[in-house]
């Protein structure tokens, strides 16, 4: 794929500049240009005001909205501390190579560090709402704000529900949803607490990938609840994130623990009411120095539908892709319950270049009775990361599973 070749070129040109001396050195001016480009890629501070490249309140970026969406051009409008008061305004619009669209708006007292952009989870395979709680955990103080988000993701994959779905049953659908919320958040010492409530409106349409059949051509309503009629929901969520890592974006020691609870109520019926509990724990153990680190992660999530209710297929948590169980395709497994375990041995060959050996395992299950360590699906491999002292910027992971070998280029850390 073209965008993968571009990222691969950036990775290896940066490695050449940062990690290894040249055998036949280029002219001094060219050498400085390569080194300066690598430094710009791997620096910690974007600029003196923390916004990086910007034109007044407009901040352009390139990002990945969700698994399978490809790189996207993003334009932020960011106005923190308007008129010197503690009032912020943020809006963004994004469009990707695969026609993924994302639009959002927030106003009020927004969680942000210095004047940097607020951090918002845009993916459809994140652990809702824990992914947003983690992203805002480093912001200080008290926050209260209104938020609106619209997504149009035309190539979402679906293989069926349960741990034994077939790779050959891959189909796709188009996800359009709007989320309108009020959010309250505060941080005390290293504990961040967040509460949110709002309305979720969703439409499920035929997918846009010409290589895959649409979900309705492969599955019926019984195998994909919510396919015939995607209900609107009201939801209430609360959660907390305890941050004990030395540097959250590039940890060498410490731990973090997150927990969240959500209630989803169908607005025009009771066929899809459910509760969700999500847990995430991570530990980092130094082996003598910061150059050698063992990183561990344990994640679990369980949706409990009310009696005679079911969870819509597109809201169930998933395994596979760049976040959880990376040796499998995105959205490969989904069900009411999820268990994921990961371990990495990380070795810094330079402070800004890291190698990693990876092993992970996980499963999905229908109810609490399936929460055990039987029949876990595993994957193993290796990775290389380019980073600064404060955060991981790029990573290349190669993992092997029962369904083949996957090569992934991602922005940001694995965990």
Please write out the topology.
Blueprint: H1 2-18, H2 28-42, E1 58-64, E2 71-79, E3 88-96, E4 101-109, H3 130-135, E5 142-158, E6 171-188, E7 191-206, H4 215-218, E8 233-243, E9 254-266, E10 274-286, E11 292-305, E12 318-319, E13 333-334, E14 337-350, E15 353-365, E16 377-387, E17 392-401, E18 404-411
Antiparallel strand pairs: 1-2, 2-3, 3-4, 4-5, 5-6, 6-7, 7-8, 8-9, 9-10, 10-11, 11-14, 12-13, 14-15, 15-16, 16-17, 17-18
Helix pairs in contact: 1-2
Structural notes for this entry:
With 415 residues, the protein is mainly beta. It has two domains: 1-42, no CATH class; 43-411, membrane protein fhac: a member of the omp85/tpsb transporter family (Porin). Helix content is 10%, strand content 47%. It is built from four helices and 18 strands. The protein has helices at 2-18, 28-42, 130-135, 215-218; strands at 58-64, 71-79, 88-96, 101-109, 142-158, 171-188, 191-206, 233-243, 254-266, 274-286, 292-305, 318-319, 333-334, 337-350, 353-365, 377-387, 392-401, 404-411. The strands form two sheets. It has a 16-stranded antiparallel beta sheet with strand order 1-2-3-4-5-6-7-8-9-10-11-14-15-16-17-18. The longest helix has 17 residues, at 2-18. The protein starts with a helix and ends with a strand. 37% of the residues are buried.
């Amino acid at each position: 794929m073209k965008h993968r070749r571009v990222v691969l070129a950036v990775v290896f040109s940066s490695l050449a500049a940062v990690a290894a001396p040249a055998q036949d050195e280029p002219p001094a001016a060219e050498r400085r240009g390569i080194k300066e480009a690598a430094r710009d890629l791997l620096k910690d501070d974007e600029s003196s005001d923390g916004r990086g490249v910007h034109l007044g309140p407009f901040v352009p970026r390139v990002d990945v909205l969700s698994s399978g969406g490809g790189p996207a051009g993003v334009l932020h409008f960011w106005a923190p501390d308007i008129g010197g008061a503690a009032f912020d305004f943020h809006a963004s619009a994004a469009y990707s190579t695969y026609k993924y669209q994302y639009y959002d708006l927030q106003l009020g007292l927004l969680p942000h560090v210095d004047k940097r952009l607020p951090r918002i989870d845009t993916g459809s395979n994140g652990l809702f709402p824990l992914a947003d709680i983690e992203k805002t955990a480093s912001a200080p103080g008290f926050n209260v704000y209104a938020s609106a988000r619209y997504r149009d993701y035309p190539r979402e994959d679906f293989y069926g529900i349960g741990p034994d779905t077939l790779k050959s049953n891959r189909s796709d659908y188009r996800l359009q949803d709007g989320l309108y919320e009020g959010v309250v958040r505060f941080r005390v010492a290293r504990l961040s607490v967040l509460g949110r409530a709002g309305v979720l409106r969703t439409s499920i349409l035929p997918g846009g990938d010409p290589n895959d059949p649409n979900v309705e051509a492969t599955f019926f309503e019984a195998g994909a609840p919510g396919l015939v009629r995607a209900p609107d929901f009201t939801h209430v969520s609360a959660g907390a994130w305890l941050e004990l890592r030395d540097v959250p974006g590039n940890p060498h020691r410490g731990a973090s623990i997150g927990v969240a609870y959500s209630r989803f109520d169908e607005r025009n019926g009771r066929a899809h009411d459910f509760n969700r509990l999500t847990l995430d724990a991570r530990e980092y153990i130094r082996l003598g120095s910061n150059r050698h680190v063992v990183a561990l992660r344990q994640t679990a999530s369980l949706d409990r539908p009310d009696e005679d209710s079911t969870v819509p297929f597109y809201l169930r948590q998933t395994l596979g892709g760049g976040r959880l169980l990376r040796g499998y395709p995105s959205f490969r497994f989904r069900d009411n319950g999820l268990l994921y375990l990961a371990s990495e041995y990380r070795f810094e060959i330079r402070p800004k270049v890291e190698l990693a050996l990876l092993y992970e395992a996980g499963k999905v299950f229908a109810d609490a009775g399936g929460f055990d360590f039987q029949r876990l699906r595993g994957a193993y491999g290796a990775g290389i990361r380019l980073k600064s002292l404060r955060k991981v910027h790029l990573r290349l992971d190669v993992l092997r599973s029962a369904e083949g070998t996957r090569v992934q280029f991602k922005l940001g850390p694995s965990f």
